[in-house]
């Protein structure tokens, strides 16, 4: 019991603690409100616990936590009706910052404020980032204990006196300094409460409800409660409907489309974790946003940077994760290394793969309908996460040019009879653009080959992954070579040209190639049959794939800076090519026309060369 005004020094071994807190935490100074409201929630929940074990009896009254601003006095107050504090408890929990026995904490941690905060539990002291003075007026739930007032101006000195307070609980009053004036603005506090406190388990009151009437805002008598105390993730999945999940998604993301589906996380051993993860729709390509998963700790918002907790590929998902077992410092913004984090990451990966597998097995048609959105997540996961890749091999799909879907096993069974080359390697032909590569796809289909559509931005990496996983398997784009070389069943017919003949033909065709920006052409000769086109332009699979991947990731600039290499294969069996030798007078015009047609079919004839080609053909038909 305090019989008179008591003064003392806060139990730290330096007078520099407050300037350090202000300096190092200033960039994140809004956290003070989250910390104070979280403390108020803790005090209220402790009271509820005491009631449950019958240590506290009687009517508890209204347990709402209230935040109020007095612009005239320059104060912000956080009030609760929780357990309150005795003078002895203030001495233990407020005055002894370093009571845990770290007399040299400043010298050890002065270069890392996060370590200071995390090690010593300085949540309350974040209030000094924005205040020139802080008061605590508190009354314990214990009978016969007087209310006390603690006051500190940011120096190590404090005062503690007995005061009159009618109700149980605590008022924390912050006298804002110049840098904290922004926190006396109603809109600023409203936005922070909605950011950090919107799902706290105790009602948070900030002002009165506002109603718009006749173009004016009218303040009502009803309290403005800013939070949902019973969010979806703390409820049992068996109690929830699809409508509940979609409504909650729209509460989290007001302008988002209805998600594809969701996963409700709920585990209490060997760690505690709840949450809901949503698979968003993907409109086109890799139209995705990371950092859409919100991390909570006992319903207190922490961060939306969840790397380390959620596997990299699942940061593309949306939703909420809540775990008291994820170690956080007092600013609740930095994850510390801990074995639980790895366990949680592994668990989430398994839950996601199990859910996808379940949908595939029980609703394959639905799975196929959503594949255009799902494949980005699944491909990204298979590329970056080995364990997920192993599980996903059962349900990842391949789509062909006829818009039919196959599992890896189904597709292998379909093509291995006709698309196995002379070295016993199964060749997976694919197109990245069915319209632009139509001629090559058509030639492949004439051979009864099946062609996949691989038009996603991750597909190059995905194919590399599958080539590592599947034995004797190779992916080759339909325009990577002439059709007989794509799936080589036997040795090609020998090309019988003397060195001189080859040299003359190479020079003849090279001289007909107009300038094509950032491109090199190699002339080759093959016997491809009379019905095959006179000239086929192809790109080496490896070089093209490496160059495309170079555009997506650093460290591959060597490939990215190289010119595109094309092979121009001349079909020596073509009647038009044979005509070159027979008609020496028109050789130049024939070769020029054949080269331009080949370039045109590949979208490589442009500008002046294209204009000349058009004029020449108009003259031919005039």
UniProtKB/TrEMBL annotation:
ATP binds at residues 35, 39, 80, 100-101, 170, 332. The keyword Nucleotide-binding applies. InterPro entries: HATPase_C_sf, Heat_shock_protein_90_CS, HSP90_C, Hsp90_fam, Hsp90_N, Ribosomal_Su5_D2-typ_SF. SUPFAM superfamilies: ATPase domain of HSP90 chaperone/DNA topoisomerase II/histidine kinase, HSP90 C-terminal domain, Ribosomal protein S5 domain 2-like. PROSITE patterns: HSP90. It comes from the Bacteria. The keyword Nucleotide-binding applies. Keywords: ATP-binding, Chaperone, Cytoplasm, Nucleotide-binding, Stress response. GO terms for molecular function: ATP binding; ATP hydrolysis activity; ATP-dependent protein folding chaperone; unfolded protein binding. Belongs to the heat shock protein 90 family. NCBIfam families: PRK05218.1. This is Chaperone protein HtpG. It comes from Azobacteroides pseudotrichonymphae genomovar. CFP2.
